[in-house]
Design goal:
Radius of gyration: 24 Å
Distance between the termini: 98 Å
Helix content: over 70%
Oligomer: single chain
Shape: elongated
Length: 175
Amino acid sequence: MRFSPMTLALSLTLLTVSSGVNGQRTDDQINPKSLALLTEGQNQLKAGNFVAANDALETALAVDPRNRAAFIALGRVAQAQALPGKAIRLYFEALSLEPNDVTALSAQGEAMVQRGAVERARANLVRVRALCKSECAPATQLAAAIAKGPPPAIVAVQNNDKAPPKGQEKSSTNQ
């Protein structure tokens, strides 16, 4: 009977842990309220109302943080507001839930191009094509974004970073 208190404690611990796991939903069951808010946010995004879209999508994620589509839609809102860094982070959150989501990979690649990281976007394109196994819409969209290249303002900033600072140009006449 020396082991009875130890056995009792162990059995209560196992009972407590196993009962918590039984009550959880599976990953593919997103809260219906979150899905309704996602739909509202997507409609607001289509209408061009970015603030309302952002609010609805953030609420959808507060209701159910496993709503991958809400992360992707928030990334689209960020891209529409010319915030590619925020969009890349939001797509990363979606990819942390499902690493092989071709929609999130493609959208992240588009945001990388918008930010000027074309080589990283090409790596995403290779991964999207490998996951699709044949030509698919996300791969086509990302390839078109890469072919178009980053916005002119990003290219100008990148070119200015490579140029020597003013006053330090080499001149053969000053020697």
